[in-house]
Amino acid sequence: MTREQFLAELEFMKKQASQPVSSAGEDVRADILQGPERYRLLLENLNDAILLLRIPGGVYEYVSPNITDVFGYPAEHFYRKPLFLRDIIHPDYFDYCKENWEALLEGNVARSYEYKIIDQKGRERFIEQSNKGLFDANGQLIALVGLCRNHTASRQMLTLKENEQRYRRTFEYAANPILLFERKTGSILDANAAALDLYGYSSGEMTGLGILDISVEADKAALLLKSSEMNIRKWLHKKKNGTVFPVEAAASSFSQKHRKLIEVIVRGIEDRMRDEEELLEREARYRCLFEDNAGSMLLINPNTGRIVDANSAACQFYGYSKDVLKSKTIDDVCILSREHLLRDMERARKRECGHFYFLNRLSNGEVRDVEAYIGPVEILGEQLLYFLIHDITDRKHMEEEMVKARQLESVGILTGGIAHDFNNLLAAILGNVSLAKLHLASDDPAYEKMIQAEKICLQGKELTNRLTTFAQAGGPLRKKVMAAPFLRDTVALFLSGSNVRCEFEFPDSLWPLEIDVGQVQKVIRQLIMNAQEAMPEGGFILIRAENATVAAEEVPSLKEGPYIRISFHDHGVGIPQEYQRKVFDPYFTTKPAENVKGTGLGLAICYSIIKKHDGYMSLSSKVGVGTTFTIYLPAHF
């Protein structure tokens, strides 16, 4: 039967059904229901749609009128395009349906299968289809009759049931306690096993309680019932036995069967709070040891050398704020090669050595001697090194002063003995030279040689006098002098006729001194000579003097008390860094060996004189800028 024949037959059945009923109407209706009308009424009143599909062309021979109810598309769409169904299949099901269509072409008819389509309004529909194949006399599949049903509602019900089952399993077996409250009354409707275990109730007991039966904070309970979404970081709950304990709660609301419900996930935080308290206590101890430590402390990442943290003492010592110091690495403050630093930090990390000596540079460029105690420490899971740093610059200077004093004492004893013996030899030589001159005529060539020999002996005697001054064991012969006039007169005496001028900066109330005038004049003379040699083209010397009350251990080797601090500053060539700690050593000089003035005793003698006056002498110098000698002499009242 062709499509046209089938439609004509249906039209005939419609006309028959619309004719008026005769007196024998009951018989006519019975005849109609027994004919083709019976099938038409059956097809039009089915909830399912019927499709008659020609194989293999895919042309729809017949589509039942209720196709729109099932697929959401009118029948014309199916008649208009072969295999129209293929165009509306959901992408997720396309491959699955394609396999079924390929099986149809091979003569294999799937009895029943389910797929999803997108209807004319863009909504998804689940279709359940049962198939029946029509075959010719040779057994070849020529058509397919499909019975299609809209399965969306039942599928949604099934999905809902599956979701409810899934939710129930999740609810029951969740590791965290979960409570279900009715929002209006605050009654507990349900509780999972973890909640029953946490609060100590049975399921029947728990569902008979309200939110205030498990909470000791009514304000938070009321707030929870009002809010749709809420997180409470700390909430005190109580168990069946009355024990109060802290929890965290996360609440979310939803509606079910016209009731507003609140699901609350509870987490006991007793252990965590105990851990947090211990952590805070450890951190407080650490902060007390770290921040309040009088010593400078740094935390260093041994892998990168980055300064992770610094205490207040370290910020004060280095002259940086904490933020600036934390932006630096240990290389920025320590004057050592990176390889040397990494090697020392590795030794400290392995606990092979924990005591080191470094030179550290401060923010103002000053270099200080430090000793560092270094060791490994773990903070918040990070492996770090702590540096406990002590400034030992003054201590080292004091040790150097003590060593220098012992050296000067030893050299002085030796020099004194040599000077005494050498002076005796010079006296004998000079006596013989004088006697030889008496036996020679003034025009004798040898007479001139004797005069030269006599001059050399006298120069040698001057050297022995200097050696004797350096080695003199006795104390200076002191007398009280006014500091300002003494300095002005002495400097003017030694600068007479020089191309170097002097400027003074003295306060009006400068304290008096008690000194050996001759010895201190020698010191001033030597310092003036050094300044003149540093400025061969001329220049000026700035001499400052001021009252200074020295505290204990403020200046190396000085006792606590009042002093006059005198500084001599020239603008000469300066002294290289590597020579500055040697300038007071006996016989150290940077002048050529053939220079008769370069004996190397001048500053050593100055240092010895000031030391015997219970004072202190130091220098600071920068190449190309100048040199400053500073002297501390005890004041006298």
Secondary-structure blueprint:
Elements: H1 3-18, H2 25-34, H3 36-44, E1 49-54, E2 60-63, H4 67-71, H5 75-80, H6 94-105, E3 112-118, E4 124-135, E5 141-150, H7 152-173, E6 178-182, E7 188-191, H8 193-199, H9 203-206, H10 218-226, E8 229-238, E9 244-256, E10 259-268, H11 270-291, E11 296-300, E12 307-310, H12 312-318, H13 322-326, H14 330-333, H15 338-349, E13 355-361, E14 367-379, E15 382-391, H16 393-438, H17 445-471, E16 479-481, H18 483-494, E17 500-505, E18 513-515, H19 517-534, E19 539-550, E20 561-570, H20 602-612, E21 616-622, E22 626-634
Parallel strand pairs: 17-19
Antiparallel strand pairs: 1-2, 1-5, 3-4, 4-5, 6-7, 6-10, 8-9, 9-10, 11-12, 11-15, 13-14, 14-15, 16-18, 19-20, 20-22, 21-22
Helix pairs in contact: 16-17, 18-19, 19-20
Short description:
The chain has 637 residues and is an alpha+beta fold. 41% of the residues lie in helices and 27% in strands.
The major β-sheet equals: 5 strands, antiparallel
* Helix-residue proportion: 40-55%
Termini gap = 143 Å
- In round numbers, the mean pLDDT is 82
Query: Which regions contain 5 or more consecutive residues with pLDDT less than 50?
Result: 20-33
Strand content: 25-35%
Strand order of the largest sheet: 2-1-5-4-3
Structural class: alpha+beta
Describe the structure.
The chain is α+β, with helices and mostly antiparallel strands and 637 residues long. 41% of the residues lie in helices and 27% in strands. A 5-stranded antiparallel sheet has the order 2-1-5-4-3, with helices on both faces. Helix 18 crosses helix 19 (517-534) and helix 19 (517-534) runs antiparallel to helix 20. It is elongated and about 180 Å long. The N and C termini lie far apart (143 Å). Mean pLDDT is 82; it is low at 20-33.
